[in-house]
Backbone:
């Protein structure tokens, strides 16, 4: 990037669990310039048999977005890449999609967990695939498929994850990119190849697992019929097709001394390291080892993320448009800023918050069953969500560095969370945030979490925090001097500040 042979324009199709977009990117004199061409909603559909992705609508929007991109810069697009969420898939027989892909939040998944663990223990499963226990991992979904509608699994000759499925519809080429394949539970954590013995032991046909490719590999050109709709036979290239793999690959840090919070619908919190961490302690802490770009490992923990906010907004205003909900969120954040500080936090990772539905009522019930005062107003609930997420993010960073025995000096926050309060930017919602004298492996300056657990604390108001952030890369001594002057707190050593 930035060399003498800079690429032309690329088109990125980024599909999240609630929305999708098509973006044009160009590198100009070493600077990445991006332009949004299309944005569209990704709304699941509930039918008699469960919750499904509206995949045909997504594909239609992708085609419209690519056609608009080609009209915007005719003849200049050199390649197209697609990323999305993980785990979900479609089953094919030849060119035909068998059934409508299920949504990972569908309630069918628990039966798959029971069936899989009856054949292979959680300990052995983690030793083989390195994945955090999530009841929607593909391996559990496929076993449910086998039990509930086994004829589909026996008819299928391939399984394609969502980005691979769309690439197949665009090009006719069927591959599985490794970063997303690593979320299935069927990829060997140490080998990076399909674990065919595991698949066979669970009754999953080996034949449905497509050839694996790495990010950067060519998938193929748009087929003739698709090219006619888009305007030209564009090249499709595999990217880090799990959206977090692409997000982490984009972090501007050449070394490994960083942690990250990639936050959207989910909050993915962890490290990028060279080899998986497969200890029993990591399994019990519910950490996962997912594939990254260039053969790296993303060692991370899934935190429920901004799903809690978006689902609350959807329940409060079911008929609102995306624009109206965005406006409502701004109002609620402003109202939440006036809620007194020190609201009690809740466990955002409690499985009760996973399914779609009335999240605000579940939050109130969570407090009620524990004998604590529950938030009542919308503003109180929003504040509780944000402060609870902040605490969960901080705890996950600390745990990741401890489990991997991996020092970090920088915490990068990417995705929607960088615009949310209680993270890196001066938090408008929090008038008296807390600066945590963090455990030894946490980054030195970029974490400002509300109500951190089990840590020494000193109050820092938002204006002070803004001044601290006015220097983008403060040295440890600068941090110590500023905090000592502003808060009248004496730090025992420079080491305590730098950590």
Residues:
């Amino acid at each position: 990037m930035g060399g003498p042979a800079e690429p032309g324009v690329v088109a990125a199709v980024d599909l999240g669990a609630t929305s999708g977009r098509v973006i044009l990117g160009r590198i100009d004199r070493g600077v990445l310039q991006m332009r949004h061409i299309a944005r569209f909603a990704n709304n699941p559909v509930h039918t008699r048999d469960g919750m499904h992705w509206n995949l045909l609508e997504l594909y239609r929007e992708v085609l419209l977005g690519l056609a608009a991109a080609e009209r915007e810069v005719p003849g200049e697009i050199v390649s197209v890449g697609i990323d999305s969420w993980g785990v979900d898939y479609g089953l094919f027989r030849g060119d035909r999609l068998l059934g409508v892909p299920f949504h990972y939040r569908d309630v069918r998944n628990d039966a798959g967990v029971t069936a899989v663990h009856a054949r292979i223990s959680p300990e052995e499963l983690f030793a083989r695939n390195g994945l955090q226990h999530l009841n929607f991992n593909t391996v559990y979904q496929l076993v449910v498929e086998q039990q509930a509608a086994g004829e589909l699994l026996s008819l299928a000759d391939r399984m394609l994850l969502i980005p691979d499925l769309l690439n197949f519809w665009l090009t006719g080429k069927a591959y599985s990119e490794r970063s997303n394949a690593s979320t299935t539970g069927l990829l060997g954590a140490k080998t990076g190849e399909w674990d065919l013995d595991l698949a066979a032991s669970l009754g999953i046909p080996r034949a449905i697992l497509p050839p694996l490719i790495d990010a950067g590999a060519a998938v193929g050109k748009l087929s003739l019929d698709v090219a006619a709709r888009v305007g030209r036979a564009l090249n499709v290239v595999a990217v880090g097709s799990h959206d977090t793999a692409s997000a982490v690959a984009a972090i501007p840090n050449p070394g490994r001394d960083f942690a990250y919070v990639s936050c959207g619908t989910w909050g993915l919190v962890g490290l990028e390291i060279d080899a998986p961490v497969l200890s029993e302690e990591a399994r019990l802490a519910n950490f996962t080892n997912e594939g990254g770009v260039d053969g790296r490992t993303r060692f991370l923990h899934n935190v429920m993320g901004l799903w809690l906010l978006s689902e609350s907004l959807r329940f409060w205003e079911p008929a609102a448009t995306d624009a109206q909900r965005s406006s409502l969120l701004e109002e609620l954040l402003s109202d939440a800023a006036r809620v007194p500080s020190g609201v009690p936090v809740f466990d955002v990772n409690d499985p009760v918050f996973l399914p779609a539905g009335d999240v605000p009522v579940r939050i109130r019930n969570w407090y009620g069953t524990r004998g604590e005062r529950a938030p009542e107003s919308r503003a109180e609930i929003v504040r509780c969500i944000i402060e609870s997420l902040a605490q969960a993010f901080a705890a996950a960073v600390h745990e990741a560095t401890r489990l991997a025995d991996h020092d970090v000096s920088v915490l990068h926050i990417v995705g929607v969370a960088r615009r949310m309060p209680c993270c890196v930017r001066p938090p408008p919602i929090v008038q008296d945030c807390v600066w945590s004298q963090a455990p030894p492996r946490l980054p030195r300056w970029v974490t400002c979490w509300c109500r951190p657990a089990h840590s020494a604390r000193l109050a820092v108001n938002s204006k002070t925090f803004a001044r601290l952030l006015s220097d983008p890369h403060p040295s440890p001594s600068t941090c110590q001097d500023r905090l000592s002057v502003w808060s009248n707190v004496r730090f025992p050593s420079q080491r305590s500040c730098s950590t």
In short: Residues 378-404 form the longest helix (27 residues). Residues 417-499 have pLDDT under 50 and may be disordered. The CA atoms of residues 263 and 466 lie 22 Å apart. The two ends are 33 Å apart (CA to CA).
